[in-house]
Amino acid sequence: MAVEIPGLVSVIIFYICILAIGVWGSHKSKKVEKTCPGSKSDVSIVGGRNINVLVGIFTMTATWVGGGYIMGTAEAVYSPNQGLIWALGPPAYVLNFFLGGLFFAKPMRSKRYVTMLDPFQSRYGNTFTAALLVPALISDILWVACILAALGGTMSVILGLSSTISIIISAAVSIVYTFLGGLYSVAYTDIIQLCFIFVSLWLCVPFLVLSPAVGALSQTLPLNQTAGHSWVGDLQLEDAGKWVDQLLLQALGGLSYQALYQRILSAASSVQAQITCFAAAGAVFLMGIPSVVIGIMAASADWNQTDYGLPPPIERGDSGKILPLALQYLTPTWVSVLGIGSVAAAVMSSMDSALLSSASLFTKNIYKTTLRKTASERELQWVIKASVLIVGMAGTGLAFGGSSVLALWLVCFCGC
After folding, report:
1. Regarding predicted confidence, which is higher, 233 or 388?
2. DSSP annotation of 267
3. What is the pLDDT of residue 119?
4. How far is the C-alpha of 387 from the C-alpha of 364, rounded, in Å?
């Protein structure tokens, strides 16, 4: 497959813009360090507790709206053994944010913790805290692998670019700006990334709905041999336990994710922390709707009318790439390029948060309190950067072997 040059140029320009914003965020972080009463490491981890509500909502939402969320939701809707009823990401994330706002935001922020492990460390000691770090670290590495695998699959379909090259370049960009600026770089790049995701994905929806290859939705409520299968899905009584388990896995798993508390603890007050959670609940649900529509349109399409041909993606084992395939074959080229941009933005908006999450936990709760109690602030800053690099490289390595984005997405919640 030939490389789509105009699309590749567009993605490169987008990456350069994101990197520039990340570098600008690092300069903002350095200015805050000079005026903030807290330590420099606290500025990197929680932004000096000076992140305003609007920025907090953007970065909270962008962290959850990753490549796994976008592509995993579309894959669940498209897959014949799942369908819309099994696309649990959007409702689970809404539940996650509501529970976080109701029960955790106020007590965590009012006690001025720096990481989610601080209350465990003060009560149970360093050994127990170190044990808790292991699943959190595994979860972040799997999260990075999941979202990079999503991007690699998308770029290989739409741009004809090697998934390996796509993964390496995207990982490098995210690692660099997170390495430089900590939470400020992450937060300000999240604003641009989330806006781009919202505009580009919603812009794709009408082109998918009006595609000549997409049949009437009423025809695909029962099994449709032309389109492929039903997109509604089926929930039998014997599967109810599995359905509840997956819902709670994603909803409650997020409550043990450092990135959630990083945004809560960066708010200027407890009230702002709660507002951030509740607003993000609505925003994350809204961001999941285009992926649901893409899955429905893909299940309703007659692939024989497209250049993809028969057999359909489900029979070729391409369900994990259904979002980029739908954009590539059911929309005009320029729309599919916007779609790849949205996945790239989603990947970086989640990856940078995962990198900073693990780096914060290790630096604050292991290195500073156990390994090097006398470590200087300059030393802690370098430990954060080294941790970002190590976690990024580990997740990037795992991304090369990921075939199903949905599977990686679910497994990373098990790590929580």
Report:
1. 388
2. B
3. 93
4. 12
DSSP string, 343-408: HHHHHHHHHHHHHHHHHHHHIIIIIIIII-TT--HHHHHHHHHHHHHHHHHHHHHHHTT---HHHH
Q: Which residue has the tokens 């299940």?
A: 299
Reduced to 3 states (helix: H, G, I; strand: E, B; else coil), residue 92 is: helix
Structural domain including 185 reads 5-27+40-415
State pLDDT tens for residues 134-175. Answer: 888 888 888 788 777 777 766 777 677 777 887 888 788 878
Residue 224 clears pLDDT 60, i.e. is over it:
no
In the block, residue with structure tokens 């050994």: 127
pLDDT at 36: 63
Per the rule left: phi > 0, alpha: psi between -120 and 50, beta: everything else, 38 is: beta
- Name the amino acid, one letter, at 326: A
* Cα 270 to Cα 340: distance, rounded to the nearest angstrom: 37
Considering the domain boundaries, does residue 271 fall inside one? yes
Round to whole Å and give the CA distance between 43 and 39.
7
250, 88 in Cβ contact below 8 A?
yes
Pair of tokens at residue 298:
């893909």
Report if residue 35 sits inside a domain.
no
- Kindly state whether residue 9 falls inside one of the protein's structural domains: yes
pLDDT of 403 strictly over 60? no
| Helix 67-78 / helix 270-300 crossing angle, nearest 10 deg | 40
What is the dihedral angle through the alpha carbons of 177, 180, 182, 188, rounded to the nearest 10 degrees?
-50
Owner of token pair 């709206």: 65
How many domains would you assign to the chain?
1
Q: Please check whether residue 96 lies inside any domain of the structure.
A: yes
Question: Residue 183, CB half-sphere, CA atoms under 13 Å: how many?
Answer: 35
Provide, rounded to the nearest whole percent, the portion of the chain with pLDDT above 70: 86
Q: What is the CATH number of the domain that holds 74?
A: 1.20.1730.10
